[in-house]
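To: structure subgroup
Subject: Chain for Friday's discussion

All,

I'm putting the inputs and outputs inline so they're searchable in the archive.
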Amino acid sequence: MTATAIRPARRQEQRPPVRRTRFGRRHALTILAFLSPAIVFVCWFTYYPMLQGVHMAFRDWNLWDLTSTPWVGWANFATILNDPVFPVVARNTVVWVVGSIVPQLVIGFLVALGLWRRFRFRGVYQALVFYPWAVSGFLVGMLFRWMFNAEFGVANDLLLKAGVIEAPLPWLADPALAMTAVIIANVWYGVTFFAIMILAALQSVPDEVLEAAAIDGAGTVRRLFSIVIPYISTTLALTVLLRAIWTFNSPEIIYAMTAGGPAGRTHIITTWMIEYTQQGSYGLASAIGLSVMVVLLVFCAFYLMAMRRVNQR
């Protein structure tokens, strides 16, 4: 026998296996019965049209001749890639996304910093800043269409009174100015989202860390770039990625302001798809839609990977 006594192992209490009773099954069937209308609604109005669109992308599906819809395979995608408009649409899409996201991030960050400090009537200012996010994107496009009107738009009126221009500018009719006009409208619309997300992240920064840095002699700018921005960097990355997905897939502002014109200079990939739909070329439009879906899946994969890294910290 050794000096140390061997302790007897504790007997683990064995619980009887849980058996599904008739009441539990009836309860599950009741829940399924209540959820079935929502499941049928989502499947019928979301997944069925999506699968039908994937099917149409590989057929010569034209509204003006529905008697013959032969299987063409990848021919619709080849037609899109060989279209002379495709390089212009691809470039416009990149300009639309990058030109919208960067100003939204910078302005939204500055607005969030301004609302981070406590001051009188802070809640009123927050409500006024966050209100545009509740407005429909198509309505925002209609409002800015009137604002950029060449004859009686408020944009030309302000620029003329300020002495910036000498004659009214045809914002939506000039190919060189149309993309700038729609990007300005989208920046105004998307700044609110960045301000909301960044302000929520700023409010999670510990005050003790900022106070300790101030005691050590760190100025406002040093604290901003050394403490605040690194602390909320994950939120900034996720917000930019999520907003990029929405901007890539949001044609309503452009469609309301220019409908892709003039001369296709404001066409992005989704407005180009709408144009094919109006022409009755459902096969080509479905091919564009399927391509957009693949790009969005890539964006979503990056977003989910970033969220997974955040949750692992």
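Points worth raising on Friday:
The two ends are 49 Å apart (CA to CA).
Residues 86-266 form a domain with the MetI-like fold fold (CATH 1.10.3720.10).

D.
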